[in-house]
Amino acid sequence: QVQLVESGGGLVQAGGSLRLSCAASTSINTMSTMGWFRQAPGKQRELVAKITSVGRKNYADSVKGRFAISRDNDKNTVYLQMSSLQPEDTAVYYCTAERIRSGVLLNYWGQGTQVTVSS
């Protein structure tokens, strides 16, 4: 079982920055993809950013140019650097990881960390 623990959330003013961290209980070298999702009150969970094992990155259009995802394989940690935050970025942010075992896609989620952006 893989455990993902997020940290770094909090309250920030509009225009500010935060860096989220996601620490995995196992080597993230075994993960094909790691990413961040978010869910705002009353809305569906949406993909924010993801990074593959070879470093390919994808971002939601709403965060392109403001957020940056990275991974540190030595620390088994994935980061989400968030800049120019806006009130609409307020949500619970979840870390996720995927890997394939015996042909089966396995998906893991963290417990989430709250990000609140005040106007």
Can you describe what's shown?
By secondary structure, this protein is mostly beta strands. The protein has strands spanning 4-7, 10-13, 18-24, 33-39, 46-52, 57-59, 67-72, 77-82, 91-101, 104-109, 113-118. The strands form two sheets. Strands 2, 4, 5, 6, 9, 10 and 11 form a seven-stranded mixed beta sheet that branches. The protein has a four-stranded antiparallel beta sheet with strand order 1-3-8-7, with no helix packed on it. It is globular and about 45 Å long. The termini are far apart. The relative contact order is 0.32. The mean pLDDT is 96.
**Poorly predicted tracts of residues:** none
- The succession of helices and strands, N to C, reads EEEEEEEEEEE
Q: Which structural class do you get from the secondary structure elements?
A: mainly beta
Distance between the termini: 40 Å
